[in-house]
Design a protein that fits this description.
It is a single chain. It is built from eight helices and two strands. The protein is globular. Helix 1 packs parallel to helix 7 and helix 3 runs parallel beside helix 6. It is mostly helical. It has a two-stranded antiparallel sheet with strand order 1-2. It comes from Paenibacillus albilobatus. This is Protein DinB.
Length: 168
């Protein structure tokens, strides 16, 4: 049986793919347009999701959180200005690597110590880190849906139950 964290990660990958497919249908100017929302633009929001995904993937692999943050945020400007298709390829590569990594783990309930420079030290499991990736991504994909609606464009359905129905 597949661990629930792996299924949730698969959902995250599907969800980001659906959003990116929708974003490929909108004008480039809208993708980069400054919008009064939780992030300055759709482009900066999608880059943020990618950056944070890389932070947590590095952490899953054993990199200290502070170092993972430093490495992942180092190319923020480049990612925010990258063409959507380039960012899509980066997401696909990262998703394949992370999915393979998760499936190779013998114990996703394995406990590790996080030393978060903003929140302190705590014990967590690999599965909890996966849930962080998924919920963080879902939150910001909701921001993107709001930005699309604010500019007169429809978003796409990314509900978890819809994902489950499509898997059948």
């Amino acid at each position: 049986m597949t661990h629930p964290a792996i299924e949730m990660y698969d959902y995250h990958v599907w969800e980001i793919s659906r959003i990116i497919d929708r974003l490929k249908e909108i004008p480039e100017a809208l993708y980069r347009k400054e919008i009064a929302s939780s992030f300055p633009s759709i482009a900066k929001t999608i880059a943020h999701i990618y950056i944070v995904d890389t932070v947590w993937f590095r952490t899953l692999q054993g990199t200290e959180l502070e170092e993972a943050m430093r490495l992942s945020w180092a190319n923020k400007d480049e990612l925010e200005n990258a063409p959507l298709l380039e960012l899509e390829e980066k997401f696909k590569r990262l998703s394949r690597e992370c999915s393979r990594f998760l499936r190779e783990q013998e114990d996703l309930e394995k406990r590790i110590t996080l030393n978060n420079p903003y929140a302190g030290i705590r014990e967590t499991t690999l599965a909890e880190i996966v849930m962080q990736i998924v919920t963080h991504g879902t939150y910001h994909k909701g921001n993107i849906s709001t930005m699309l609606r604010q500019t007169g464009h429809a978003s796409v359905m990314t509900d978890f139950m819809y994902f489950l129905y499509l898997k059948e």
